[in-house]
Amino acid sequence: MKLKQNYLLALLSAFIMWLAWPPHNWLAPLLFVGLVPLLVALKQITTNAKNKTGKKIFLTAGLTFLIWNTASIYWVFNSINAVNTGFVGTIVSLLVSLIPYGLGALLMTFAFWMYYRLSTYTNKKWIGYSSLIAFYISMEYLHQTWDLAFPWMTLGNGFAGMHQIVQWYEFTGVYGGSLWILLSNILAFEAYQQIKSQKQYKLAGIWALLLLLPIGYSIYCYKNYEEKSVPVNVVTVQPNIDPYEKYGTTSSSEQLSILTKLSDSIAQTNTEYFIWPETAIPNYADEERIRSNPEYLLAQQFLSKYKNGTLITGIESVRFYNDKRTISAKENPNGGFYDHFNAAIQIENSASVAFYHKSKLVPGVEKMPFPKVFSFLAPVFSKLGGSVSSWGWQEEPGVFYAYSGIGVAPVICYESIWGHWVAGSVKQGAQFIAVITNDGWWGNTSGKDQHLLYAKLRSIETRRYVVRSANTGISGFINQRGDVVQQSKWWTRTALKADINLNDEITFYVNYGDLIAKFCVGFAAIAAIFILLKRWFLK
């Protein structure tokens, strides 16, 4: 009976966490108590279980995180299944989807299991709870930094729909939100235990202060934040070309015609920036010969009507080498090697041109995880027509500088969920952020809404405007407070314009990055060593 009750509590936590997750924006405060039922279940297990306690802890926590992750990112299946039709294709898509559904959940579960292991060696609650926070945030940080990275479900992202209460992300980034949520759940659980056993409310009062003080400070910052008036007129375009047809029935020149007509329809003589979406120029342009590329010439011809205009657009590009100078380079049948890139290009009314190569590539789809480890398989993949890493990438964030001196952070697709990466571009001089994406792969699901909402957090962390151009999805403008001031509708061909304000001030987060996560990694490492030493000495 107890086992069944514990699993029900685990399912209740999963349901509350899903209910609180974007795009259920106004239910975000449920994150403050969403893990309490799970903590109650784990307490019952450690109190009553006579054997296999660790296994029960793992399975119970695993149930919560697997259900919560799967329910929140169910749309991953849609994107895979769209290209795998039929019954067999559906089965294959389901099996592949289990990787993103399960991997993040496994890391979260491992954090709780490690917390249990440490708790068996110490009776000091503060050590145990500190380790739980450290282990959990360390797992989130791992899922942001390793080659299987997919930090979509980082706890701090949960406030993307209620950005008014996390304006202090300009100091902490999203890991400040993760810390806040974990502390809140631990205090709420302990307060519940205290009220239940001692009829005391001291911890409940402390828990209330933990919530109200950061919220109060954030709302104060939100209401009093003022942007400096440094206006730039920007046009963002959503061509709404079906992502599954843009490489077939619609030619590159036709797509460019759509983009230029939409741009011209609302542009002003003083428009300084045009933002076009990811892979808007889909023809594998040779970067060394870009100035003679037909699509580039058409784009520059369009831009000639706007004296101060600069175009930032997605492009699929290629570079050729005499030798294998990058780990992603593939052998060219005609001799030499080459890389192809999911890239952004900046075009001006001059011979100046700049490229940025997407760096945060989708594991398994755009990049083979751990390519150095699996480099020995290169000859095998070569025979099969591929390589150990499909797309090339660059190692550092980039900035596009226009002739006017304005710096822009080019961000391609889901790179926008990496706060530290975007902050890296801002630290180099970016004065606003241009997110170019193609969210049509996921269909009309919450995936596109989450992707838009997460960009609000980048605005707060950096205090920069975000201009979003989606081929299909949601395009729009987000101000420096994280407000979506204008946005398109789903599956609509349109263009939007706005006067955005530039900013060159550097926030604490931009300057110092993910300090909370790095501190937690250090603490977790010490705790893990402590567990190993205890196990060794107890033998």
Strand-and-helix sequence, N→C? HHHHHHHHHEHEEHEEEEHEEHEHEEEEHH
Strand content: 15-25%
Q: What is Rg? A: 25 Å
Count helical runs: 16
Termini gap? 34 Å
- What gross morphology would you assign? globular
Mean pLDDT: 90
Tell me how many strands there are.
14
Q: What ranges have pLDDT less than 50 throughout 5 or more consecutive residues?
A: 380-388
Helix content: 40-55%
User: Largest sheet at a glance?
Assistant: 8 strands, mixed
Q: Structural class, from helix and strand content?
A: alpha/beta
Descriptive account of the structure:
- It is a single chain.
- This protein has 539 residues and is an alpha/beta fold.
- It contains 16 helices and 14 strands.
- The chain has helices at 2-20, 36-48, 53-72, 75-81, 86-119, 125-145, 169-172, 174-198, 202-224, 252-266, 294-303, 378-383, 419-427, 446-462, 508-512, 515-538; strands at residues 231-238, 273-275, 281-286, 310-321, 330-331, 337-348, 353-357, 400-401, 407-412, 432-437, 465-470, 476-478, 484-487, 494-501.
- Strands 1, 2, 3, 4, 5, 6, 7 and 14 form an eight-stranded mixed β-sheet that branches.
- Helix 3 crosses helix 5 (86-119), helix 5 runs antiparallel to helix 6 (125-145) and helix 6 (125-145) crosses helix 16.
- The two termini are 34 Å apart.
- The model is unreliable at 380-388 (pLDDT under 50).
Quick tags:
14 strands; eight-stranded mixed β-sheet; alpha/beta; six-stranded mixed β-sheet; globular; 539 residues; single chain
Question: How are the elements arranged and paired?
Answer:
Blueprint: H1 2-20, H2 36-48, H3 53-72, H4 75-81, H5 86-119, H6 125-145, H7 169-172, H8 174-198, H9 202-224, E1 231-238, H10 252-266, E2 273-275, E3 281-286, H11 294-303, E4 310-321, E5 330-331, E6 337-348, E7 353-357, H12 378-383, E8 400-401, E9 407-412, H13 419-427, E10 432-437, H14 446-462, E11 465-470, E12 476-478, E13 484-487, E14 494-501, H15 508-512, H16 515-538
Parallel strand pairs: 1-2, 2-4, 3-4, 9-10, 10-11
Antiparallel strand pairs: 1-14, 4-6, 5-6, 6-7, 8-9, 11-12, 12-13
